[in-house]
Amino acid sequence: MTKPDPSSGSGPIRQRYMIGNVETISLSDLARVLQADPHIDVLETKGPAEQPTLLIVAMSHERAELLRQQFGNRLIIERDATLNIQPPRPDIP
Asked: Which DSSP letter does residue 23 get?
């Protein structure tokens, strides 16, 4: 199934999210389900292919909220913030 190009301007803006499991939800099974969703792009899986420990996906804020409602506290869904390495500042101990 072809997914719409998120840069085409159609539909909500997709942002990067990290998804981890707390309970016995199989992230490999979840990745297969998310890959079939035209509103979600699975960008990366971290860990062994048969038992990943983290999924990196692109989806809208609204879609992330729907997943949070659906899975409750069985999944951790957080925005994937860009980390910048800054040199130490002398004014902060």
From this structure: S
What gap in Å lies between CA 82 and CA 93, rounded to an integer?
24
CATH of domain 13-79: 3.30.70
3-class DSSP assignment, residue 17: strand
- Give domain limits for the chain: 13-79
* pLDDT tens-digit series, residues 61-86: 999 999 999 998 889 999 998 777 77
Say how many residues make up the chain. Answer: 93
Other beta carbons within 10 Å of 42: 19
What is the model's pTM? Answer: 0.72
Burial 14-30 (b: 16+ CB within 10 A, else e): bbbbbbebeeeeebeeb
